[in-house]
């Protein structure tokens, strides 16, 4: 229900494909996790994790800290052992950042590696479904079961099916998986914290560990167009997402068996009518209104924006990884390194990396090109086994 009162009581025609696949191998579905309402795509004013149905969730490590989102409930449920494994969806950071903030492993798969059928999408061009778990092993076991072709998400899944290795992903859970891997450290602008901070000291220790495990670190790797990539207006990502969201949401709502709303316009009207009941008036719905204002007359602008995003990826991460002969890039997972991966449909894995001065978790993110999950799993699992960072939540006030 995307955390929205507008979808309370709605009935879907079928389970999402990834849920059906998990049920088929014996998984017990406990329920739907809470999330940042509409995946933080209603208004940027609303706090991370908040939605009108469930309210504001807490970070189980430090209750006053940001629990992150938008897959907030999935991350908290996994961190607190309320569920053995969970799923999240990501458009731009929504698996990687809550996993980082809750000391978890999150896998953002290559676009189309997992079906999005049954998911409320922001962007069919960027959205992906992946596991959020306590260990790399658990996450990989889940990934193995949810990947694959789906007729209801044909275009994306057929293109990505070629990346699925024979024998699945479990074979890449190698304790010595870091040996020989070339890892590019994205210092700028992602390591912009004080050199005396816990984060800085922790990452320098991790770099030593990576080298000891046989990785080749290529330091100070620079993506020349990074400032454009991280600017949603200049890159065109913001416009593209707004346009894609309206179309995708209207398509999703039209298929519901029962629903009080059938279009984005209906949702906006519902929110206005029930703003006092929702206690959401102060958060508004500025993103919704912008999305609703777009129509076919904007299609040429959107095409140019999407073309620009592809070019930014080709001249950004793809160029750097090719020239430096990298197996993966790395950066703190609580930084917008996820945007580099998001705009090109690239995969990323975050693994617990430490806890800051207040005890708030942070992760390390390893990212690569499309279909590079085998290498990323080897890297992430080897790092996890060498460090064993994760500890249970403290519920510190």
Automatic annotation (TrEMBL):
Occurrences of domain Amidase (ranges): 1-334
Q: What is this protein called?
A: Amidase domain-containing protein
Q: Which organism is it from?
A: Amborella trichopoda
Organism phylogeny: Eukaryota, Viridiplantae, Streptophyta, Embryophyta, Tracheophyta
